[in-house]
Amino acid sequence: MIIQLIELCFFVCILYIFNGIAEAAKRGSSGYFNVKDYGARADGRTDDSKAFMAAWKAACSSTGAARLLIPKATYLLGPVQFHGPCKNVPSITMNVQGYIKAADLNKFRPSEEWVQFGWIDRLTLSGGGTFDGQGAKAWPYNKCPTSRTCRLLPTSLKFVQMRNTLVKGITSLNSKHFHYGLVDCTNFRATGFKIIAPDESPNTDGIHIERSTGITIDSAKIGTGDDCISVGHGSKDLFIRGVTCGPGHGISVGSLGRYHREIDVSGLVVADCTFVGTENGVRIKTWSNPPGSSSANNMTFRNIVMNNVRNPIIIDQTYCPYRKCASASSTPVKLRDISFQNIRGTSATRTAVTLHCSKNSPCKNVKLQNIHLDYNGMQSNAAGSSRKAVSSCRNIKAAYRGTQIPPPCR
Ligand SMILES: *[C@@H]1O[C@H](CO)[C@@H](O)[C@H](O)[C@H]1NC(C)=O
Asked: Domain holding 224: CATH number?
C-alpha cells in the first residue's frame, strides 16, 4: 500500500515536472511568448496593455530569436511601448492574429502614440491581424485642420529609430490620427497590407515618413481621409510600388519647409501605383515661407494610373493653410531632378497637370514623358471646348517628351 502510494506520488511528481517544463517552454524559454500566458483577458473589454507589455519585456530580454504571439481573439489595448534594444535577441517576430482595439482618447496622455515600436533591430510584424484605432470617437477632438497649435492625436503604429523592420499582412483600421508614422528608421519594408478609414476622417495619413532611409512600401491598398503616403523631410531612398490609393489625398512629398533645420528629401521612386477618386495623385507640396532652407531632389513617378483624380500631377510651392505667408526674405524649398513618366487616366478637374514653382527659386530639371490624362467632364460648369484637360505652370520650364495630354504650358 505504502509502496503503491510512493509509486503514485513518483508518477504524479514526474508528470508535474514535465508539465512545468512544457509550461516554461511555452512561456518563453524556447523563444515563444503568448500574450495569453501573460494575463491577456482577450475579451475585448478588459485593458490588456499590461499583459502585452509583460510579454514584450520577456521576449525582448530573452536569448535567441523571439516570437511573440497574439492569438485570434479581440483585445482592448491602451498606449503601449515595445522598446528595445533587445540585446540577446537577433530577431523578434510579433505575430498578430487577433483583432486589437484601441482604448478611448482619455486613456492617452498628450502626444502619446497608440502602439509604439522603438530602438529594435530586425522586427517582423505579421500575422494577418488588425489594429483598430477606434478613430470615429476621437476625430471630433482633432482641431489640426484649422489650428496651428493643436493637440496631435495618437498615431496607431509608430516606429522610432528602428532598423531592418518588416511589416507584412497587417490591417490598420480607423486610426485616431496617422495610421503609420516612421521617424529615424533605416531599412523598413511594409508589404501586402491594408489601411482603411473613411474619406472624411481628419489627418488619418496612411504612412507618414520622416528622417528615414531605405524605405520600401509595396503591394498595399490604402484608403483613408488624408495622404495615402506622405514623405516628410529627411526621407532618403524610398521605393513605393504596387500601391492602390483611394479615397484620400494621394501620395505627397511634403509639406516641406514648415520648420527650421529640415533635412533634404532625395531618392524617391513611385512606380506601378493606381489612384482612385483621390484629391491628388502625385504631389510635391512646400510651404511658401520656410523658416530654414532645404531641398527635395531625385524623385521619379512612373507607370501610374489615375482614375477620377482631382489633381493627378501637382507641384505646389504656395502652401499656406493658416495665415498670411507672403515673405520676400524666406528661402523656398529648392526642387530639382523630378521626372513624371507614363502617367495615364482621368482627371476630375480640368487642370490635370499643375506645376506651380516658387518665384524666388524656380524648379530645375523637371521632365514629363508620356502623359495621357483626360478630363472626365464632371465639373459642373464644363461644356464644349472646356472639356479638354489643361496644364497650369508658374516659374518652371519643364522638359517634355512623347505624348502630352494635356498639352504642355506654352
Ligand atoms: C536617385 O534615387 C534613386 C532611388 O533612391 C537612387 O537609386 C539613385 O542612385 C539616385 N540618383 C542619384 C544621382 O542620386
From this structure: 2.160.20.10
